Each structure stands twice: as structure tokens, then as C-alpha cells.
Amino acid sequence: MTEITCKLLVIGAGPGGYVCAIRAGQLGIDTVVVESGPLGGSCLNVGCIPSKAMIHVAEEFERATHAAAGRMPFGLTAGPPALDFPKAVEWKDGIVGRLTNGVAALLRRAKVKIVHGRARFRDGRTVEVETETGPQVIRAETIVIATGSAPVELPFLPFGGSVISSTGALALPAVPARLAVVGGGYIGLELGTAFAKLGAKVTIVEAQDRILPLYDAELTGPVAKRLGELGVEVLLGAKARGATPDGQGLRVETREGEDRRIDADRILVTVGRAPVTGDLGLDELVLDMNGRYIRVGDRCETSMRGIYAIGDVTGEPMLAHRAMAQGEMVAEIVAGRPRAWDKSCIPAICFTDPEIVSAGLSPDEAKAAGFETKVGKFPFTANGRAMTLDSEEGFVRIVARAETGIVLGVQAVGRNVSELSAAFGLAIEMGAHLEDVAGTIHAHPTLGEGFQEAALKALGHAIHV
Ligand code: FAD
Ligand code: NAD
């Protein structure tokens, strides 16, 4: 059995692990990263990137379908579009390949050693990796657990056959004619909307009484409306009960307590993700847990000295940019720099139609936290750029402390608002006041002017509404 000794060992090369390893390498730390699958983790291979690629394909296809139906208000018409689905999948896979190769190159440039195989703890300083060429022992002064998450399986709807997870949905050979989606959260809505635009008859079954329960109803309203326009049926307060015996449908208990059958060629189960800790050998350690997740402090330290945990394995919010920020911070801590988690917000985006962005506190969250607030909301119906994009649905909403005007949160729903998340996050992180946002010249015509106008509205003197 061969042995490697290093200063830092990172287990998992998803956004948390690879960023941690690259930053550590840049800081001159002798670093090894172990990965049992492809570099880039869930995000690059089966998550953020491939899903957004397919969402883009679906948007383009739907626009072309619209043009073919003569429904473009500006007079564009075209013949009926045809989609070569395998070609779309190949394009998506090409993007994934470019990015994962990029991660490999960045790790190499930072002089990080990559070991391919599954890691298992022997003790708090030693890990054994099953590699293709046999077992490899790695001893490290510091170990970072970045093993991420995997789709939750429902016991009465196990994955296999027609029952698929997001990973399966992103690797389908063709668009299913009928798709039942269990779970109206992030993945269910992003992928459900995309498949509806690609021509599937989509039914979404959500246990709560509204879609995307993480966001407030004002933000999700335009998404619910659009799902209706796309012909997506949404069953709220409904519980999936299992597949029908013929394998061609889903049994559902409706809010009214009735049994209902939903005909489906595929059943996509998206009811959350669970941390990957199963065969990591955590029983060899004495780690405090937070339910199923590894408990960490504000430096991402676990209850064992020299062991850190980052990313999805540490719990919500399970977002790639949170994992990356934790990874970068931990690398600096290992290098001896004085760092701790001091972020004011972790922006979240749902890539639905229209998109939703939330940074910081919503009006209700701010109130619940004891703040007196001022709220300003600016509709895209009054924004020139939104009109020129033929996308006037949605708004920007800003929440500030009544007393000081310090911005506590910014939310938006609308076409392409994901790109506004940087401005929202920056304002909150910099401790901006309403006057700072209102006093910044926002280029015209842009959706970003909605941000400035929302701040002006909260100050009581919006110009364009
Ligand atoms: P992961 O990316 O899960 O990486 C963990 C890595 O560890 C994996 O590569 C795994 O193979 C490896 N590993 C596990 N155990 C071992 C072991 N014992 N030995 C060696 N290696 C091991 N987030 C966003 O912010 N924006 C989005 O738009 C977005 N879209 C998503 C869409 C979908 C369909 C899905 C499924 C997720 C999406 N996410 C999105 C969530 C995002 O993918 C995760 O938050 C992110 O990947 C977490 O990063 P991580 O490094 O913690 O874990
Ligand atoms: P989720 O937590 O977003 O949504 C799960 C939904 O399933 C919830 O609305 C829940 O009420 C519902 N549900 C749970 N059990 C159910 C049942 N038995 N029947 C019907 N509905 C049920 O989970 P997800 O969509 O699987 O996504 C997992 C995670 O991945 C997210 O929490 C997020 O962190 C991450 N993600 C992020 C993005 C993004 O940032 N754009 C995109 C996709 C995924």
C-alpha cells in the first residue's frame, strides 16, 4: 500500500473542495484532493451547469415556437422549430467537459495533487483511498470534508426505471411525453419548466400549499402564473404515494384526501438533497452532527481539531457559491490567516421563468428579526428595458431599516434578474444605505434601474412610478 503525506487533504472536488484546494495551492500549501467521481462535483457535472444549459435550450425552443405561432408582438415569424435533442445534450455535455477540464488545469497550475478514488477515514489524520491501482493511504495535518450531497430517495418511489432523480433527468435520451415531478422546489420547478417548454406535459406535485416555499408568495406569484400559461399542472398540498402498478403513472393523495392517478412516462423526484457521509468512515471520528449534516463553527471547523467541513455536507443553504466561499475561507485559515465567516448574505437564485433572486432579508424576515423597515418595490412594467425585452412581468423590492436606511435585503422576480444578484449582494455586503443605491447612476436602459428606483421608492420619491 502506497502512502502520501501532505499538509492539507481535501475530500471531494466539487465547488467547495476544488476552490479550497486551488486557494490552498496558491498559498503554497502542500495539498492533495481526492475525488471519487469527475472533478467539479454535482454542480459542474449534474447540477448548476447542465441544468442551466438545458434551461437555455428550452427557452430558445419555446421562443421559436412562439414565433412560429405568430405570437411575437413585434412581428417576428418563423417556421415551426425542430429540436435535435441528442445534439442539445451533446452541447450541454461539451460545456460540462470544458469546465471540468478547466478545473483539472487550475488544480494542476496550483500544484495540487489529484488522487482519483473513494476516501475513507482511518483516523483523524489518515484516510485510505480506493484507487484504480489499489489502496492509497494519505496522512495529512489538516483534512477538509467536502463530500457534498446527493438526491433524496423516497422509500415508496425508489430511483430506477421510470423514476428518476435530477441526474437522470439531465441525461434523458428524449423529452418524455408526460412528466410527473414530485417536489415543487428549486429543481422540480427549474427542470419541470424546461421540460414543459420542450413539449412535455408536466404535472408538479408539491406537499406544501405553494410552490417554492422558501421564497415569499409575492416573489413566486409570477412563476405560478407562468406555469399556468405553459400548461403545467401544479397540485399543491398533495402527496406522492408511489408509482402505479403498470409503471405508467404516479399515485397521488390530493389536498382533499382523494386518490388520483397522474399518467407519466417519467417520474422526476426532487424532494431535496441529503449529505454524502455514508461510507466516509465517520464512525472512526468523533464529529458533532447537526441532524444528518456535519456541524461546523464560523471557521467551518468541526468538533475535531484539524478537521474542517464545507459545502452541502454542512447543510443549508446548499448552494455552490456558499461552498466556494467556505472553501476559499478554509484554505486561508489553514495558511494561518485570520478568517471567519462574516458574510452578510448568501444570494439565492431560482432559474425559473421568470427568474427569482433573493439577497438578505425579505420584508417578513426583517420584521421577524425585530427590524422596523421601509420597503420599496418597483415594477418592470415601468422599466424601459423590460419593455424592449417584451418581459414586463416582475419587480425589484428593497428592504431597509426604517431608522438608518441601511439595506437589509433585495429581492427581484423577472426575466434575467439573476444578473442583478451581484449588485444586490454588493449593496448588502458593503452596508449600503438607500441613498447609496438611489445616488448611484444606473445605466439606461437596463433592468438594474429597477434597483435604483426601488431604493428611490423606499425613500418616498421614485421617478418613474
Ligand atoms: P458537491 O458538488 O456535491 O461535490 C462533492 C464531491 O465529493 C463530489 O464530486 C463527490 O463525488 C465527491 N465525494 C463524495 N464522497 C467522496 C469520498 N468519500 N471520496 C472522494 N470523493 C468523494 N447551486 C447553485 O448555487 N446554483 C444552481 O444553479 C444550482 N443548480 C443545481 C441544479 C441541480 C440539478 C442540482 C442537483 C444542484 C444544484 N445546485 C445549485 C446545488 C449545487 O450543485 C451544490 O450546492 C454544490 O455542488 C455543492 O458543492 P459541494 O462542493 O459541497 O459538493
Ligand atoms: P428543495 O428543498 O428546493 O425542494 C423540495 C420540495 O419538495 C419542497 O418544496 C418540499 O416541500 C417538497 N417535498 C418534499 N417531500 C415531498 C413529497 N413527499 N411530496 C411532494 N413534495 C415534497 O429541493 P430540490 O429541488 O431537490 O433541490 C435540492 C437543493 O439543491 C436545493 O435546496 C438547493 O439548495 C439546491 N439547488 C439550487 C438551485 C439554484 O440555486 N438555482 C437549483 C437546484 C438545486
In short:
This protein is of the alpha/beta class and 465 residues long. It is built from 13 helices and 24 strands.
Task: Assign an overall shape.
Answer: globular
Uncertain parts: none
Percent helix, as a range, is 25-40%
**Total helical elements:** 13
Please name the CATH topology of the largest domain.
Answer: FAD/NAD(P)-binding domain
Name the CATH class of the largest domain.
Alpha Beta
Radius of gyration: 24 Å
CATH architecture of the largest domain: 3-Layer(bba) Sandwich
Classify the oligomer.
single chain
Largest sheet: 7 strands, mixed
Key descriptive features of the protein:
five-stranded parallel β-sheet; binds flavin-adenine dinucleotide; Enolase-like, domain 1; 3 domains; FAD/NAD(P)-binding domain; alpha/beta; 465 residues; binds nicotinamide-adenine-dinucleotide; seven-stranded mixed β-sheet
Protein described:
- By secondary structure, the protein is an alpha/beta fold.
- The protein is built from 13 helices and 24 strands.
- The strands form six sheets. Strands 1, 2, 3, 4, 5, 6 and 19 form a seven-stranded mixed sheet that branches. Strands 8-15-9-10-11 form a five-stranded parallel sheet.
- It is globular.
- The structure holds flavin-adenine dinucleotide (FAD) and nicotinamide-adenine-dinucleotide.
- Nicotinamide-adenine-dinucleotide (NAD) is lined by residues 154, 182-188, 190, 205-208, 213, 239-240, 270-273, 317-319, 349-351.
